[in-house]
Design goal:
Elements lengths: L1 H8 L3 H9 L3 H8 L5 H13 L3 E6 L7 H21 L5 E5 L11 H18 L4 E3 L7 H14 L4 E5 L5 H9 L4 E5 L14 H17 L3 E5 L3 H13 L8 E5 L4 H9 L4 E7 L4 H10 L1 H13 L2
C-alpha cells in the first residue's frame, strides 16, 4: 500500500526539500491549492460561489513550533474573514481549522489553541458564517472534542470532523448526532496504528456507512466528506430514508478533485461545499491528498515524467 509510505514522506524534511525543488511541483500543487494569499484566492471564491457552490476555506500549515506562529495562524484566518465580509460572502463560505495550527501541540497547547481559535469563531459568527474543527491524528482528538464542546456553548453552529477509520468514531458519532451539532464525516488521512484504526479499505467503507446512518438518523447536520461515487449514492439513499430535505445535509469535496461532480450535485439541488485550501506551507496537505487516492499520485507522477 502506497498510502502509508506517502504519509511517512509527508513528515520527512528530506522529501519535503526534494519535492519542493522539483520544477513540476508548483503546477501540480496548484491543482489542489490554488493560491498562497487571500488576494490569490478571492477570484476562486467568486468563481465557485457564482457557480452555485459553497466553500470551506483552510489556511494550510501545521508545523507550528512557537506561540508566535500560532498567533500568526489565527491572524491569517481573521484576515480571511475580513475579506469575506468585504465580499459579502459570509453566508456561502465557512472556515476549516486544524487546532495544531493554533498551538495545540505546544506546552499548554489545549488552552493556547482554545484561546486562539475562539476569536476566529467569534469573527466568523459576526459575518454570518461558522468554523469547523478538522480532525487530526488520534492523539489530538480528546482535546479537539473538548474545545468543540466549549465553543458550542456560545457558538452552537461550530462544526467538527470525525474519521471513519478510527474504532472510536462510531461512539463519537452517536454522541454528536444527539447534540444537534454539525459533523463532517471523512474516511481519514493520517497514518494510524492497527490498535486504533481499520487498515483495509473495505473495513473503512463499511464503517463509513454505519457512521453515516447514525448521523442521518440523528438530530445533527451531516456533512458527507467523500469523492467516492458509491458512498455518495448511499448517502443520498440514507438521507431519503431518514426523511431529510436537501438543505438538511450537505456534500463536501476537495478543490481540484471531481469538479464536474461538484457542479452536478449542486445542479440537482444538493448543498455542495468545496474544501479549498491556500497558503505557503502546502507540503503536508499536498502529501495527504496524494496518499488518499492513487489517482492523485498517478497524476503527480505523470506530470513529473512529462516535464522531465
Amino acid at each position: 500500500m502506497l498510502g502509508p509510505v506517502i504519509l511517512a514522506a509527508s513528515r520527512s524534511d528530506r522529501m519535503r526539500r526534494l519535492i519542493s525543488a522539483a520544477p513540476v511541483t508548483k503546477q501540480v500543487v496548484d491543482r489542489f491549492i490554488p493560491g498562497e494569499t487571500v488576494d490569490d484566492i478571492v477570484p476562486i471564491v467568486e468563481e465557485l460561489t457564482a457557480g452555485g457552490l459553497e466553500l470551506t476555506m483552510d489556511v494550510v500549515g501545521e508545523d507550528i513550533t512557537t506561540p508566535e506562529q500560532a498567533a500568526a495562524a489565527r491572524n491569517a484566518y481573521l484576515a480571511l474573514i475580513d475579506r469575506l465580509a468585504e465580499l459579502e460572502l459570509g453566508g456561502r463560505v465557512e472556515m476549516s481549522v486544524k487546532l495544531s495550527m493554533f498551538g495545540q501541540a505546544l506546552e499548554g497547547g489545549h488552552e493556547l489553541a482554545l484561546g486562539n481559535v475562539r476569536p476566529v469563531v467569534e469573527a466568523a459568527a459576526a459575518i454570518g458564517t461558522t468554523v469547523t474543527l478538522d480532525a487530526e491524528d488520534h492523539t489530538t482528538l480528546d482535546s479537539m472534542f473538548a474545545i468543540h464542546e466549549e465553543l458550542r456553548k456560545d457558538f452552537p453552529q461550530t462544526g467538527c470532523v470525525i474519521q471513519a477509520y478510527l474504532f472510536r468514531t462510531e461512539a463519537d458519532a452517536r454522541r454528536l448526532a444527539a447534540s444537534g451539532s454539525r459533523v463532517r464525516l471523512v474516511k481519514g488521512a493520517y497514518k494510524e496504528p492497527a490498535e486504533v484504526a481499520y487498515q483495509q479499505k473495505h473495513e473503512i467503507d463499511k464503517a463509513y456507512v454505519r457512521i453515516l446512518r447514525t448521523l442521518m438518523e440523528g438530530e445533527g447536520y451531516p456533512m458527507i466528506g467523500s469523492h467516492d461515487p458509491r458512498l455518495i449514492s448511499i448517502a443520498q439513499e440514507l438521507a431519503r430514508k431518514a426523511g431529510r430535505k436537501l438543505d438538511e445535509y450537505e456534500f463536501q469535496m476537495l478543490y481540484g478533485i471531481r469538479g464536474d461532480e461538484h457542479l452536478r450535485l449542486a445542479a440537482e439541488g444538493h448543498r455542495m461545499r468545496v474544501y479549498t485550501a491556500y497558503g505557503t506551507d502546502w507540503y503536508g496537505y499536498f502529501m495527504r491528498r496524494l496518499a488518499e487516492k492513487p489517482a492523485n499520485l498517478r497524476f503527480f507522477v505523470r506530470s513529473m515524467i512529462s516535464k522531465g
